Each structure stands twice: as structure tokens, then as C-alpha cells.
Amino acid sequence: MLLNKPIRHWLSVLAGTAIILLNLNSTGLALPREQLEEIARQSTARIYGREGTFIGVETAGSVVLIARDGNTYYGLTNAHVVRERGDYFTLVTLDGQEHRVDPKQTKLLPNVDLAVVRFSSDRNYPLIQLGDSDSLQIGQTIYLTGWLGGIMRYFNEGKLIDRTNQLTQERFGLAYSNVSDKGMSGGSLLDEEGHLIGIHSARGTVTRNSEPNGSITVGLGVPINTLIQLAPQAGLDPALITTLNSASRPTH
User: Fold this and answer.
1) Fewest CB atoms within 10 A around its CB: which of 46, 60, 162, 246?
2) Where are the bilayer-spanning segments (predicted)?
3) Phi/psi of residue 209, each to 5°?
4) Which of 86-90, 105-109, 172-176 bottoms out in mean pLDDT, i.e. has the lowest?
């Protein structure tokens, strides 16, 4: 599918390095579902165990490309996806290319289920724009994308149920009705404007007195503002991340 013009932007070219940002949407208007799915498709990659091929659901996960510095790309995923993966693991981008990721260069963020991975490539891969998870409203539509079982990309629509630690426990922060399964951990959560507002972590049951059974099964994720706040601890220069506030800044 060809992208509509508002979706893809060449932000800057530095020393021959092109930085492609998906959807610098500042209109406040919701995008069509097919455009949102395309944004998610281009920015959400797969992670496998170190063999570089699919070796079981338990080794599979998803990762979202968020920054580039020269030929170094940075991806955001869950800490539990990349923890104890051996000598290396493999990240597969949308073009099918396999990239070796060194766990020694992977940064696990403190007290939250997030990790920043890095890989090297001279190819141009689109990056996603980060939104503002603090502005989310209960009941609004959000979209989840991840690699189901490490084999099939799955995109689906849901509603935000809660965004407080009171419901989701300290290491999460977002609860939603989107469908998820193994392999989708580390997948992207988008708002209706196509901005990354969180990273999917798990599926769980939380207590809710308004439900007939007193509980509800939900998706659990980490708000993207957590990454923005902790970026320096992940070895990630905040200037490399494009947020709603930084998207309008001039590039050099």
C-alpha cells in the first residue's frame, strides 16, 4: 500500500544519513485506520532468540524503532523480552533484514518493563513519533500492534480502560481492551493520530468492582512518557527522540 503524503517525512540528512519520521501529525485529527496500521507496520519490528530464526514463541517479541544516530538505530521493547537472551539476539526489520543485537549494549530501564536495544545499519528505516501519554483519556481508542508468536503481525483496536498505577500495578501504567498474545510484548500502542503512546507488556486480570465477576482481563502497557523521562539512563540522547514538542523544532 502506498503511503499518503502526510504519513512519511524526511526529517533531515546529516553526513549522508537520512532520518525518516512516520506521521508528523499535529492536526489533532484522527487518521484513517489503514494509515494507522501502515505506521505501525513500518515501525514495529521482531526480536528472536540468538539463532536468528524462529525457535519458539517463548523467544519471540516485538520492538519499536524510535531513534537513529548515524548508522545506529534504537528500538524500544520490554525488559522481559531481551533479558537473558544469551550471547546475542536478532532483530528483523520490515524489509526482512536480520540485525544482530548485542545484549551488552542493551539498556534495561530501572523499575519498569522497558529496554532500549540498538543495532547498526546503513539502510533507511522509518522512525515513529512519540506522543504524550499523560494526555490520554479513559475510553479513547488506541491501537496495538505486535508480532503474534513471532510469525504474524497483528493490529487491533481497543479502548483505554485505565492509566493509573492503582489499577495496573507499579511497573505498568496503562490498561486497555486490545487483544494480545505471546510474541506481542514490546509492541506499539498508538493513539488515533498515529503517535506512540505506550509499549505493550503483558495480558493480565485486574480487579474492577463494576464488572460482574469483580475482575477484567486487560492488556497492560508502559506509558511512553516513562521512556522520555528515563532516556538518559538508557544511554539515549533525548535529542534523538522526536516527540510532539520536538517535531516542530528546526533541523540542521
Assistant:
1) 246
2) none
3) -65, -25
4) 86-90
Query: How many angstroms separate the CA atoms of 149 and 163, rounded?
Result: 27
Cβ count near 17 (within 10 Å): 14
Domain 133-226: give its CATH code.
Answer: 2.40.10.10
Per-residue pLDDT at 64 exceeds 50? yes
pLDDT at 150 over 60: yes
User: pLDDT by residue (tens digit) across 179-199?
Assistant: 988 889 999 999 999 999 999
Architecture of domain 5-129+227-240: Beta Barrel (2.40)
DSSP state of 229: H
Phi (first) and psi of residue 70, to 5 degrees: 65, -125
Please state the domain extents for the chain: 5-129+227-240, 133-226
DSSP per position, 61-84: EEEEEEEEETTEEEEEE-HHHHTT
Q: What is the DSSP string of 177-209?
A: -----TT-TT-EEE-TTS-EEEEEEEEEEEE-T
212 contacts: CB under 8 Å, gap ≥ 6: none
Length of the chain equals: 252
Average pLDDT of the residues of the chain: 81
